[in-house]
Amino acid sequence: MTSTKTPSKAPTGPPSRSPTKAPTKSPTRAPTKAPTKSPSKPPTKAPSKSPTLSPTKFPTPVPTSTPTAGGFVFTRPTLLAAIAADDFSPSSPYGAIATWDVSKVSDFYALFKTKTTFNENIDTWTTSQVTDFRLTFDGTSSFNQPLSSWDTSSATSMNLMFYGSTFNEDISTWDVSKVVGMGFMFGASSFNRNIDSWDVSSVTRFDSAFELATNFNQPLGSWNVGNGNQFGYMFYQATNFNQDLSSWDVSKGARFSSTFHQSNFNQDVSGWNVAKGTTFNSMFYSSAFNQDLCAWGNGANPIALNTAPTAAMFDATPCPTNTNPDLNASPRGPFCYTC
């Protein structure tokens, strides 16, 4: 093969352009933008919204001025179990006892019975559904906390509610208008609060209401006891009680045994209508009583039952005569005084 003598084309000239500087562009600064301040905006306060009284999706600050509710709604069985566990602190499974939601519980029967060391503040509880308060604080020998905020408007029974407790707090604003039974309610040696404004017009049982309430001596003259039929032992050993009860309508009363037994009572109750009384045994036994009650045997509304027991009715009193009344005599008597 024959080779060409010279290149087929003339070689190109030297580089058509002068070489560029290295690099072609000045390098950028690192970083390309100045860093922003950290954070870019002032941080918000924690939490961003004020805490509410009930749980929300926003957490409340820790701690708060008052404990927040735990969110658990109690039934009677779960409430009894929680009380039996005897842990009422904020670290308990249900939180502090003041925050417990008992709004669905209608029965407080014997709730704290014989919890001798119990003395927690539960004034914040919602009790508007509770009908039965029987024996709630029976035997709670240490309990003395405010309960004035409790809604008792649904209550029908308060028998033995504070029996054997040391309770002595103001409950004058309670609505007891539906309560039927108050038997043994204030068998609490310390109790001495004014409850004269209570509407007790539905109560039928007043028996032993203030039995052993040795400190109690408050007015009760405004009470409407017109539906009461049980007055036995009402002020039994209420050793300080001596208030005017002359306005009471006891015309439905049947049992008056030991009503003022060993009390300090010495007020005129000669105007009481005791015509339906069936038993008067020891009614004023060993009390300070010294009043003429001849009207009970011979007045406008005398005792109707000639066989009504009157044994020891005025025994150990300052009465001029302590002889048992003879309901078959004419005139009947004596009734503390010779009739």
Outline the fold blueprint.
Blueprint: H1 76-85, H2 295-298
Number of strands: 0
**Sheet of most strands:** none
| Classification by helices and strands | little secondary structure
> What proportion strand?
under 5%
| Principal-axes shape call | elongated
Characterize the quaternary organization of these chains: single chain
Distance between the termini: 173 Å
Number of helices: 2
Overall mean pLDDT score? 88
Low-confidence stretches: 56-62
Helix content range: under 10%
What string, H for helix and E for strand, traces the elements in order?
HH
Rg estimate, integer Å: 42 Å
InterPro entries: DUF285, Liste_lipo_26
Protein name: (Lipo)protein
Pfam families: DUF285 (PF03382)
Organism: Seminavis robusta
Structural notes for this entry:
This protein has 339 residues and is mostly loops. It is 4% helix and 0% strand. It is built from 2 helices and no strands. The chain has helices at residues 76-85, 295-298. The longest helix is centred in the N-terminal third of the chain and has 10 residues, at 76-85. It is elongated and about 100 Å long. The relative contact order is 0.06. Residues 30-39, 46-57 have a biased composition (Low complexity). InterPro entries: DUF285, Liste_lipo_26. Pfam families: DUF285. It comes from Seminavis robusta. Residues 1-69 are annotated as: Disordered.
